[in-house]
Amino acid sequence: MIKDILIVGLGSFIGGTLRYMLSIAFNKIVRTCTFPIGILVVNVLGCFFIGVLYSYFKNRVGESLLPLLLMTGVLGGFTTFSTFSLEVLQLYQQNELLKAILYVIVSVGIGILACFLGCIVGNK
């Protein structure tokens, strides 16, 4: 268990660092744009790579720390949006379309509401 936690922590450090570096780089490239292009690019890349890794590791047999390092750690630190997207896709693949749609609506809606309420609390 400790080894798993350390692997995820290492991956999270790498992913978080990559997220920061790529976000800064893209925002410098598109300086005149007030749209958060850096994080958008990070989210899309994270979704792409978690799809690649999930498909690759899904059919591999055996206990490996690589999915834990790369998917949970690196991509989890890079963007949690990738994990969210994968979970929606998995619900869809399990023929749980209603649950997938509800998960998207509730996650985004409540997430924005929680952020708004957090700002109100933080300003007091």
UniProtKB/TrEMBL annotation:
UniProt-listed InterPro entries: FluC
GO molecular-function terms, A-Z: fluoride channel activity; metal ion binding
Activity regulation statement: Na(+) is not transported, but it plays an essential structural role and its presence is essential for fluoride channel function.
A GO cellular component annotation in the UniProt record: plasma membrane
GO BP terms, alphabetized: cellular detoxification of fluoride
Keyword Chaperone recorded: no
Alphabetical keyword list: Cell inner membrane, Cell membrane, Ion channel, Ion transport, Membrane, Metal-binding, Sodium, Transmembrane, Transmembrane helix, Transport
Catalytic activity: fluoride(in) = fluoride(out)
Transmembrane regions: 6-22, 34-56, 68-89, 101-123
Membrane topology note: Multi-pass membrane protein
PANTHER family in alphabetical order: FLUORIDE EXPORT PROTEIN 1-RELATED (PTHR28259:SF1)
Job of this protein: Fluoride-specific ion channel. Important for reducing fluoride concentration in the cell, thus reducing its toxicity.
Name this polypeptide is given: Fluoride-specific ion channel FluC
Source species taxonomy: Bacteria, Pseudomonadati, Bacteroidota, Flavobacteriia, Flavobacteriales
